[in-house]
Structure formats: C-alpha cells, structure tokens
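Hello,

Following up on my earlier ticket. Below are the two sequence lines again, exactly as submitted.
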Amino acid sequence: MTLAGIYAEQKNNMKAIESRLEKALEAPHPILHEASMNLLRAGGKRIRPLLALISAQYGDPKRPEIIDSAATLELIHMASLVHDDVIDDSDLRRGKPTVKAQWDNRVAMYTGDFIFARAIELISGFDRPEAHRILSRVIRDLSLGEIDQIKELYNWKQNLRCYLLRIKRKTAILMALSCQLGALSSGCTLAVSRRLYYYGYFLGMSYQITDDILDFVGTEKQLGKPAGSDLRNGNVTLPTYYALQKNELHDRIVGILKSENPSEDDWKRVISLIKESGAIQASERLSDRYLQKAKNILDELPVKKATRSLMEIAEYVGKRRY
Amino acid sequence: MTVREEIESIYANLRRDLSHPYVSKYLPIPEIDKDKLLVYYYLFQKRSGKRTEVYVESLMVAEIGLSTHESMTTERLNGKKEIKKRQLTALSGDFYSALYYYYLSRKKDIEMVKWVAEAIQTFNVNKCLLFYPKHTLSWTQAVAALETIESALVAKIADRLGLKHWVPFLNAFFLGKKLVSEYELQAQNDSRSFLCNYLIESLTHDSVSFRERLEAEIKKTKARFFDSIRQAEENSGTLFELLPYLTEKMNAFCRLTVEEG
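Thanks for your patience. The regenerated structure is below:
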C-alpha cells in the first residue's frame, strides 16, 4: 500500500481529527482565533496523528479517545511551532506569514500557550494515568531539548552524541509518543505499545536527520525558507557535524562561520563545502540505519495491515525529498 | 512541621525546580509570588488538610510559566545576547508550564490538570482582550480584564475546590496588588509598565489623569476587598489563618501609595 493509500484508508478518521482540531482552536478573541485557524489551514502532513491512528489498530480502533489523543498530539506540535517561530525569528512558515510576523511576539506567546492549554484540556478526558505520565514527561523533555538546542548554537566543537540527544528531544520522542499514545488509547497491551514507541523513536530520528539533510539540498521553494537556514542560525546539524570532522575542511568552514557578518556568497560557499564533503551521504547512511532499526521493530509486531502501513511510512520517510 | 516551615520548604523546592543551569546564566530565577504561594497553601489545606506541597508547587510553576511569557519583548533585536535572552524567555516559560502537568500527572490528579488548562486559556484570552482589543476598552472594561488575568488561575482553583466564597476577595486582593505595582512603576516612569502605557494612551482625551484614576481604583478595590472578606467570613468562619496576612498586606499596599502618596 502507498502512503496516499494509507491516508485514503484513514480518511474518515483524519476528517474527524481535523474537525476536533477546528473545535479545539475556536477562541473567543478574534486575533487568537484567526492566528489559530491560520495554523490549522496551513495544513501539514499530520504525520503524528496518522501514526497514532495506525498504532491504535493494534487494539480496539473504534475507541473514541483515539481521535482525542491524535488531535492532542497535533495541537502540541502546532503550539511548539508558534513558539519556535519566535525563537528562530522566522517570518515565514510553509510560505505563509508566521503568527509573530503577522502580529507580534506577544500574540505568538499567547497563541502558543492557548493552543497548548487546549491540548491538555482535550487529553484530560483520557482516563489512563500511564498515558498522562508519559505525555507530560515528553512535553517537559521537548522544552528541555529546545533549551539544549539554544545552548549548543554556534558550538562548532559539539560531538555526535550531543546532536543525537537534541534531535531525540526535538522530534523523535513526539513521534514515539504518537505511536505509544495511539496504542494506549486503543487499549492494546503495554508490550505492543512499548514496541510501537521504539518504532516511532527510530522513525523520528531518521525523519529529523532527513530534515537536516533537506535543509542543505532542498530549494528555497521546497523548504519555504532559504537553504542552509539551520547553519545560518548557528545550529550545527548532522551534515555540518560530519563536514567539520574533516581536517582539511574544518578550518575553512569555521573561519567563515566565525566571521563577523558573513555575506550571501560566504554562506553559499560554506554550504557548497559541506555538500561536496561527503557529509550528506554520511548523514543519509545514519538516517538509513535508524530507519532500518524502525523496520526491525516491525518484525516483532503482529503481522497485520497496520504493520504493513507502518512499513510504508518508514519507506516514505526514507525517500522523502521535502 | 509548622506552617512557616512548610511554606519555606515549598519555596526552596520551587527555587530548585526553577533554576535551570543554562537558563540561569542569562535570565534571573523567576520571581516567586509569596502571596500566591500562601493562598494556594491554604486553599489546598482547606481541601484536604493533608500535605499539599505538590499541588502548591504545580500551581505556582503554572503561574510562573505565564508570567515568564509576559516579559516577552516585541522589538527587533540584533545583539546575540539579547536574542538569546528572548529565546530563553520563550523556552523557560514553556518549561515551567510543562512542569505543572508533569507534577500533577504523577499525583494522578487529571481533574486538576484540566482546571489549570482551562484557567490558562482564560488568562490568554483576557490578555488578548486587554492588549489587542477589537475596539478601545473603557477604563472599567480594562480593569475587569486585568482582574481576570491577575487571578485567573487562583480563582478557578478556589472555585473548583468548593471555596467559591474566597473568589471575590482573592480577585480584589490580586487586582489591588497589580494596580499598586502599576502605580509605582508609573510614578517612576518605568517603561515596564505596559499597562500604564496602554491605558494612558487610551485615556489621552480624558479630563481625569491616569494617576488619579489609578488612585481611585485602588481605593475602590481595597473597599471591595474588605467587603468581600466580611461576606466570606459570614459564609465560613475558617479563614482566620489567611485573613490577618492578606488584610495586613492590602493595608500595606495602600499605605505605600494612595494614602501616603
């Protein structure tokens, strides 16, 4: 089955999630309402809700709390995006003005906090203490991961472990949680939900590494922001890390990065150096290794349609180009 | 443990939980509102009479998360250090807000999680109402929004814990406290007084000065506070532990400004 086929199969559930999101984002203030609705309309792949829906197939997929759990995950993701745009000082997301650009940083703070509170309110109807314990830990770790990212900005000497821990907290744990929460909402066994957690975790690691590769190889049109944006913001991602390991390139790259005000030509030069260093291929290899780990977990799950769908999602993550 | 020791222990725990080693390099440890801490302590004492540390800490970190985001600046920044401070303001606020859910889910009190989440929504809606109104707010509307903001969380919790008769005097107390703080900032021409800046602008064509209005509002709020205290005492004679503290504080606020100013 193709990814499009998986979405088609989940069409009714995805529609239910969209409608739950729309209801959750209704706000009794015009700016708050418009800011939230703009985020909803900007769309996105809704990969987290999709993972939750498929994981729920290992239990009873008709339980009503599955839709609430899936919508909660997307709301948490949305709230974090609004605040991320303040942190990164981004004016555009998916080619559209960000909340902070359309209004200001304060509105972005209020909107993100409002959406986050809506997410918590929505999931509070889920009567399973284990799920809340896991979700609350992940939310706490997400913010700690973001603080770590700020801490490591412009640190050209950081090691691989530091990068991996950062992307784990930034992306992988929310994907892992999506699978686990979907499974727990469906009432499936703890053993299966734990395996699904690890599938989501390895998938998320591969997903973020791919994102970091695309930041170098994608076009501005595909990315909705200039190529090399992470690097321009001082964020050392995997391709930069690998390029910096090459002695013959290290000083040239760091020299440019440390200069007072790098010109656009400087940025193009440093991006080229990284792209031509073999760092992209090395990053792809590590991404593939995580993907393979995700696929291996699937061997431990019951052979059923959901397992095939998760395999398809893993294939998609491996091939995605934007 | 005496009440004082318990409060000090909660305060120390909060200081520990709020001090992230990296964030502390750039931002001061957030201020802990001792009045709110004490009110939460007595609210939960009234509820269960048992040890209430986790509840008080959870509510306080939620309050601190919200007030941390209040210090978010809007102007364009160029300096790396200033940018980092702004980034950490957003992220540390998120971290503190995450902690209340983390603590309460370990207590398995998801109903309380829901109340806090609802109160946070009320807070943010009223912030937008006050600072981004569709039409210019009247003085009365602005003060009403400010009152909701200042006690959004504490009033919600009091109400849900079955202490509805506490809500009027808590509202008046925290509004009074905020108005006095705005009065002091305005007297010093301190630009941090966002409220003053906003209200002065909206009252430009008013014959009564901003300062006079604020003084009158503080007096009115003080009277309302004592009135609601009397009513609360009629409903429940069990407020005596908290009352002397709050009344003394309210009197002190007002002595500092209106009556001596």
